[in-house]
Amino acid sequence: MLVAVGMTPWCVAPALAALGGDAASVAADADALHGVIHSTPLQHYDIHEITSDNGMRLREFLDRNGLVFAIAWSGPAIPDLQRLLGTSYQTYTAAVAAAGHPGLKHSRRIATSDLVVESDGHMRAYSGRAYLPALIPAGTSAADLR
Amino acid sequence: MRITHLLVVLAPCLLCACIGGSNGTATNTVPPPPTVNSLAVIVDAGPAGVGTVNRPYVTVKVCAPGSTTCANIDHVLVDTGSWGLRLVRSVLTAGGVTLTPSTDTQGNTIEECAGFSGGQTWGPVAPADVTLAGEVASKVPVQVLDDTNAGAPPPATSICVSSGSVHNAVPELGANGILGVGVFAQDCGAACVNAAPALDVYYGCSAGAAGVCTAENVALTGQVTNPVAMFAADNNGVIVDLPTLQNPNGDATVQGQIIFGLATQTDNALPATGLTVLGADPATGDFNATYNGGTAVLPALIDSGSDDYAFADPNMATCTATPPNNPLWVGYYCPATAPQSVFAVNTGVGAENASNTVQFAIADPNSFVATAAAFINLGGGQGSTRFTWGMPFFYGHKVYIGIDQTVSGTHKGPFYAY
Fold first, then answer.
1. DSSP letters spanning A3-70
2. How many domains in chain A?
3. How far is the alpha carbon of A125 from chain B, nearest alpha carbon, in Å?
């Protein structure tokens, strides 16, 4: 584990955020979830899927520069978005506050030019995703990021 | 908001009986006892000054456990898409009822961040005696929604720290509480009993408004629980029975009922023919649906807490606020040619895997009567990855909800039927 982390050039400062973070932040998220990482390389990006014994599944999408440009979650709880959104969290909370109360039972979609966050589901079965539109790799559709 | 103290209501009637007919019309007005297992449901504009649409409400009697300190709380939302009773703290307080929070083995208060699709509720878990019609759930864990911020604030790891999405107060909820009567008994279930690390749902919190909260597991018996599952009888499900609407552009009020129990009494039998029964996934409570011939299999449920048919249709226009449109409807569907006819195919999960096609229509809500509270053909949910049969579905269907790990006639819960 230590050797593997030491091989990545971004390990100097431990990253605490996923979105906008790097591969080291994926490992940090996996640690926080006590989860296992399963990585799938695709043509334009890699998917690192973290599954946890507590039922949570987190998918982090890394571009060819090693940056996390999208995350998607599902499971019996809503994950810690402050951690997962990282530096985008302030953008998210400001947009939520500005949107007012769309209703407890409506799926929520926050879309700014910098950040899209979608949250849906119900008790025992939540799902959602967040992505940075400007960082979506060429040839990739937002619809694929789930 | 109308909170009735039972003693106050009963006392004048006793007085009338003693006076004995000095006014000939007053002696014989005591109504017959209500049917034990059915409770009136009304769709109206909601708690005073709120102005809601397509929300079915009941009045819930809640008491401090084992006491006669009780309040009848009106305008509690009937929600077949959640599990457990949640009541606004300030409403309980106004009714003279204080519920004492549950504590964990360390003596910390158990609090919850309960997630819904578009927001959350935050507050302590507390046992209460809950009466619905003639049915009683004793010491059922309910959530007290902390609209007065009397308890500990949510921790940084909780989605409830995003204050803009927390719905604890009456205007945000559009209700004085939420009565979750869907297909499960507990709101989180086994996932919150042994999780490592504990899920961000339940927390142990040190006391007071400066308390500190840490996520922890809670046994099933301590989780917020669907009161129906704790009734002594009629505890295997509910029927939500609302009439069709009179006016396609909206009715001011709709009156119907919720019936407790399935196949336990003469009024809650499951029809032998013509009933579509959809088994639900015992992990999620969802069945499957496809929309308008699409190939995507969407998790689906029948949800009286949703005001609309909610699904994604990228080809259907959403409403704008451009005059003369009513800004109330921004985000809902406004089909270019309305009403637009569409359909979805429901398929059960597991042994009860029947398929059933439902035709429905989406109207332009700007054509609705502005003062009405009940609307058919209301759609929304652009961007959703699910299919939700919200309130418009209930106006045309009697809906049966079978609770997980119970049996109703020949049907095993969890299931939906109509």
1. HHHHTSTT-SS----STT--HHHHHHHHHHTTEEEEEEE-SS-EEEEEEETTS-EEEEEE-TTS-EEE
2. 1
3. 5
In angstroms, the separation between the Cα of residue A10 and the nearest Cα of chain B is: 25
Portion 32-71 of B in contact with A at CB < 8 A? none
All structural domains of chain B with their residue ranges: 3-19+32-230, 267-417
Say if CB A137 and CB A63 are below 8 A apart: yes
Q: What is the pTM of this model?
A: 0.90
Using a 10 angstrom Cβ sphere, with 0-12 exposed, 13-18 middle and 19 or more buried, the burial of residue B383 is middle
Instruction: Report yes or no: A64 at the B interface, CB cutoff 8 Å.
Output: no
- Rounded to 5°, the CA angle B322-A143-A88 comes to 75
Q: Structural domain of residue A82, as residue ranges? A: 2-144
Amino acid, res. A60: E
**Any CB–CB contact under 8 A between B81 and chain A?**
yes
Q: What is the pLDDT along chain B (418 residues), one digit of tens a residue?
A: 445 444 444 444 333 333 333 444 445 667 655 458 999 999 999 999 899 999 999 999 999 999 999 999 999 999 999 999 999 999 999 999 999 999 999 999 999 999 999 899 999 999 999 999 999 999 999 999 999 999 999 999 999 998 788 999 999 999 999 999 999 999 999 999 999 999 999 999 999 899 999 999 999 999 999 999 999 999 999 999 999 999 999 999 999 999 999 999 999 999 999 999 999 999 999 999 999 999 999 999 999 999 999 999 999 999 999 999 999 999 899 999 999 999 999 999 999 999 999 999 999 999 999 999 999 999 999 989 999 999 999 998 999 999 999 999 999 999 999 9
Please, what is the Cα angle at B223 between B190 and B153, to 5 degrees?
Answer: 115
Quick one: how far is CA B303 from the chain centroid? 8
**CB-CB under 8 Å, A82 with B119:** no
Residues of B in contact with A56 (CB under 8 A): 199
The Cα of A73 is separated from the nearest Cα of chain B by a number of Å equal to: 13
Residue A127's contacts (CB-CB under 8 Å, 6 or more residues apart) are A72, A73, A74, A119, A120, A121, B385
Pairing of strands A68-75, A35-41: unpaired
> What is the value of ipTM here, to two decimals?
0.88
Whole-number Cα distances in Å, A89 to B75, B201, B306, B382: 35, 20, 28, 23
Q: Which of A54, A99, A146 sits opposite B197 (nearest CB)?
A: A54
Backbone angles phi, psi at A10, to 5 degrees: -100, 15
Right CATH for B3-19+32-230 from 3.40.1350, 2.20.25, 2.40.70, 2.40.128? 2.40.70
